[in-house]
Write a structure and sequence with these properties.
globular, 226 residues
Length: 226
């Protein structure tokens, strides 16, 4: 029989059945995303930069989407979970290229297309590597953040350090995500919940890094926006 978008998914160590609360720790640790989103939003100041506020809202949506996936575990909620993460990555990349590096809007938008090609190529490479394969879609993001940090080390050292710190936290987070099923025999709870907690910390930090580094809007541009 063909599978539907509502068929249950069992992909994590903690889940032992299809029930709503079969992953209580994985489900409840998504509150970390909500808390991180609230704190990030309050630190943006007033008026909040639009893309900074969008990132905080998407961070909250990641918590909601992941929370739904770890309670109603099916392909539909998995799509909501992954879709929110993808939205954060794309908005963040555009925000950095546009408002930190000062790229024209068209160049910043084209950067998103370049990222998609990069993610497909590097993701295919990671998928060939033991241990990395299970999280092959996420390792390219950590790598890209690190590459931005290294490229900007001389010109924007404070921003670069923030990016490299974010890449480090994300790499540790992905490692815990990847180890979840491998440690199931000795650690029935698994390690996926640590992916949630560290990811919430990392995404908050990435918003904070963007907030601190965002270039001032030129006076002429302010006049046009007003």
């Amino acid at each position: 029989m063909d599978r539907t978008i509502f068929d249950p998914i069992d992909a994590y160590c903690e889940r032992l059945g299809p029930g709503l609360w079969a992953e209580p720790v994985n489900a409840l640790t998504n509150l970390a995303f909500i808390l991180a989103a609230i704190v990030a939003a309050t630190r943006l100041g007033r008026p909040a930069p639009p893309l900074g506020l969008a990132l905080a809202v998407i961070l909250g949506a990641i918590g909601v989407g992941s929370g739904l996936f770890h309670t109603f575990a099916n392909p539909l909620t998995a799509l909501l979970d992954v879709g929110a993460i993808a939205a954060f990555v794309l908005v963040y990349l555009y925000a950095v290229n546009r408002h930190v590096l000062g790229w024209p809007a068209m160049a910043a938008a084209l950067g998103l297309l370049a990222f998609m090609g990069y993610a497909a190529l590097t993701g295919a490479g990671f998928a060939r590597l033991p241990f990395f394969a299970i999280s092959a879609a996420y390792w390219p993001i950590a790598l890209l953040i690190a590459l931005y940090g290294l490229a900007l080390w001389r010109s924007r050292p404070a921003f670069a350090r923030g990016l490299l710190m974010g890449a480090g936290i994300l790499s540790l987070s992905i490692a815990f995500r990847s180890a979840d099923m491998a440690v199931c025999g000795t650690l029935p709870l698994g390690t996926h919940f640590l992916w949630h907690i560290l990811n919430a910390v990392m995404l908050f930090w990435m918003i904070e890094t963007y907030r601190r580094a965002m270039a001032p809007v030129p006076l002429a541009a302010e006049g046009r926006q007003g």
